[in-house]
Design goal:
Shape: elongated
Largest sheet: 6 strands, antiparallel, barrel
Strand order of the largest sheet: 1-2-3-6-5-4
Number of helices: 5
Order of helices and strands: EEEHEHEEHHH
Distance between the termini: 51 Å
Length: 208
Amino acid sequence: MNYDLSKVGIEKDIQYECITTTINEDGVKNAAAFAFKYLGEDKVFCRIFEGSKTLKNIQNTKEYVVNITQNPLVFTYATLDCLGDEYYTDDDDIAIIKNTPAYIIVDVVSIEKMSPDDFPIKGDKNIFFITGKIRKFIINDENVQAFNRGLSALIESLVNFSRYKIVDEEKRKEYMDRIIENQRVIDKVSDEKTKMAMAYLKSEYEKN
């Protein structure tokens, strides 16, 4: 089955930041912020490091929910592992964030264990590549757009550029270091328009 995720601003093969919610065998719900990628038709993908509650729950239940939101408190509490029960719906058998603008219920198709050497972020923990199939796609707010952090990186770089000509050399170097890092992020997670905008902005930085 094909799903039109463009209704919530999701394009194929672009990475978006969403809140992944899961439930364990005791009915305890958990939320965490993870990147999410749509592969087309009904296929989705995410990567999770070993040791997380989310990974353990997914391995046990073979399902998870992608909550599409831009609520800063939800992102913060989920990342810090302190999203309270009051943030979830009353469903006993699945974890869904209450009043979330849109959500996707995913059935896990495969879980592939990868070593740290197979992933750009080096560490001592394995990472798991999880491929899934969309079971249900619900939109509660037609204005919702999934969050791509590349746009934030571009906006930060534009703000810094507005100050670039009036700061001292030390600060100019700091801004240039930031734009190099922001461009790395954008090249990894963003769409072609954002990549083009960042490349053009960087060329303007280099002229001044």
